[in-house]
Amino acid sequence: MSGEGGGSRKGEGEGKGVTMRVEVDVPKCVASGQCVMIAPDVFDQNEEDGIVVLLDEQPAPELHADVRESAVVCPAAAIRVVEK
């Protein structure tokens, strides 16, 4: 995503050896779907009840900013991001 304007958060700190692990607390999920709209490569929803389905627990660096945003906007605080 190089070449984007200076104010973009995408790619900030990415590709510098940072690894990410995503954890979801499924019982806390309220099926709002915010995570799926922000990071569809990482999250999906169960067709029966809309509860979160984690597609990729170790997403690629270019997805890290979207995963962080998903965790912040989750109304149930059901997404946890661990970075090293």
Describe this structure in words.
By secondary structure, the chain is an alpha+beta fold. The chain is built from 2 helices and 4 strands; from the N terminus they run βαββαβ. The strands form 2 sheets. A two-stranded antiparallel sheet has the order 1-4. A two-stranded antiparallel sheet has the order 2-3. The N terminus is likely disordered.
Q: How does the major sheet shape up?
A: 2 strands, antiparallel
Unreliable segments of 5+ consecutive residues:
1-14
Using the coordinates above, name the CATH class of the domain at 26-83. Answer: Alpha Beta
CATH architecture of the domain at 26-83: 2-Layer Sandwich
Element layout with pairings:
Layout: E1 20-24, H1 34-38, E2 43-45, E3 52-54, H2 64-73, E4 79-83
Antiparallel strand pairs: 1-4, 2-3
Can you tag this structure with a few keywords?
two-stranded antiparallel sheet, Alpha-Beta Plaits, 84 residues, alpha+beta
Entry summary:
The chain has about 80 residues and is α+β, with helices and mostly antiparallel strands.
